[in-house]
């Protein structure tokens, strides 16, 4: 727990490894035993046919909620499935207590289809600022971590996003058409131009990791749910990248952003992408 006069940085120095352990155990106990073994009754729809939830999502979130609150008494958890059940709980992100932001299975559609492209996302924030993040892809056995001001790492190796190759089309992962409004689709059309190669995204967490490790150049996303973005945005920042909304401001996990927004390997690329998004609007 954060004790009297203890900073969140001091808490992380002592307990970041415990968070990592909780994330790995949630995946081992609740997610991987169900991968490619889901029964029909273990999969439900939420807002529509492409918005899925499984018993793995629910049980992994319950596991993480218990473990993270035990590590940091007085904190709160804002998890995707708990917010679906009680939308008012999302306000925890805007509160004064430390908040764990949890997406137990990011890329549920991929998980349901038996694909490998899913991950577990956990971020720790305070006052609207993300201080640490964990991105775990259990099938790939990859763990990316970041602590504000201390860099981003993949399996212990420091990540450097670098800059895009100027002789190659800009590789941009965009919000899937199934989850965009007509106005957002028009904005994303700005990326349909020479020198840019947009494609529909998969798991948001893995797309952020791809930017942080320099495998992809940028994202262009149209939704604000903090559990999809908090962990990855810090990962990109600490790898040397940048994130901007169409208003030219960093994305705020507390909301009120001018969408779409981008996370990119460097600030110049972020400004290029937001310029194209504004042109398409």
Verbal overview:
The chain is α+β, with helices and mostly antiparallel strands. 34% of the residues lie in helices and 24% in strands. It has a seven-stranded mixed sheet, sandwiched between helices. A three-stranded parallel sheet has the order 11-10-12, with helices on both faces. Strand 6 (129-137) and strand 7 form a beta hairpin. Helix 1 (8-31) packs antiparallel against helix 2 (55-71) and helix 6 (204-212) runs parallel beside helix 7. It is globular, with a radius of gyration of 18 Å. It starts with 7 loop residues before the first helix and ends with a helix. The model has no long low-confidence stretch (mean pLDDT 93). It comes from Streptomyces pratens. It is an enzyme of class 3 (hydrolase). It catalyses: a myo-inositol phosphate + H2O = myo-inositol + phosphate. Keywords: Hydrolase, Magnesium, Metal-binding. Its EC number is 3.1.3.25.
Q: Helix amount, in percent? A: 25-40%
Number of helices: 8
Going by helix content, strand content and strand pairing, the class is alpha+beta
Q: What share of residues are in beta strands?
A: 15-25%
The count of strands amounts to 14
The stretches of 5 or more residues where confidence is low (pLDDT under 50) are none
Order of helices and strands: HEEHEHEHEEEEEEHEHEHEEH
Q: End-to-end span in angstroms? A: 46 Å
The average pLDDT value, as a whole number, equals: 93
Shape: globular
How do the strands of the widest beta sheet line up side by side?
Answer: 3-4-5-6-7-8-9
The biggest sheet amounts to: 7 strands, mixed
Q: Tell me the Rg in angstroms.
A: 18 Å
Protein name: inositol-phosphate phosphatase
Catalytic activity: a myo-inositol phosphate + H2O = myo-inositol + phosphate
EC number: 3.1.3.25
InterPro entries: Inositol_monoP_metal-BS (IPR020583), Inositol_monophosphatase-like (IPR000760), Inositol_monophosphatase_CS (IPR020550)
């Amino acid at each position: 727990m954060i004790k009297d006069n203890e900073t969140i940085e001091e808490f992380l120095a002592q307990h970041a490894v415990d968070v990592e352990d909780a994330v790995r155990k949630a995946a081992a106990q609740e997610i991987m035993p169900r991968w490619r073994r889901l029964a029909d009754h273990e999969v439900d729809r939420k807002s529509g046919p492409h918005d899925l939830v499984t018993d793995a999502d629910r049980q992994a979130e319950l596991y993480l909620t218990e473990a993270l609150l035990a590590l940091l008494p007085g904190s709160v958890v804002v998890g995707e499935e708990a917010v679906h059940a009680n939308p008012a709980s999302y306000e925890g992100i805007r509160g004064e207590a430390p908040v764990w932001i949890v997406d137990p299975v990011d890329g549920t559609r991929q998980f349901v289809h038996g694909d490998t492209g899913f991950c577990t996302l956990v971020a720790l924030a305070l006052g609207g600022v993300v201080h640490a993040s964990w991105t775990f892809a259990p099938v790939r056995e990859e763990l990316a971590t970041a602590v504000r001001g201390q860099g981003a790492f993949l399996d212990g190796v420091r990540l450097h996003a670098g800059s895009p190759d100027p002789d190659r089309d800009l590789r941009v992962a965009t919000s899937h058409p199934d989850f965009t409004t007509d106005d957002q689709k028009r904005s994303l059309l700005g990326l349909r131009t020479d020198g840019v190669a947009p494609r529909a995204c998969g798991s948001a967490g893995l797309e952020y990791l791809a930017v942080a490790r320099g495998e992809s150049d940028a994202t262009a996303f149209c939704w604000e749910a903090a559990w999809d973005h908090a962990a990855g945005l810090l990962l990109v920042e600490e790898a040397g990248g940048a994130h901007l909304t169409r208003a030219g401001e960093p994305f705020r996990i507390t909301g009120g952003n001018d969408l779409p927004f981008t996370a990119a390997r460097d600030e110049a690329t972020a400004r290029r992408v937001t310029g194209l998004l504004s042109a398409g609007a």
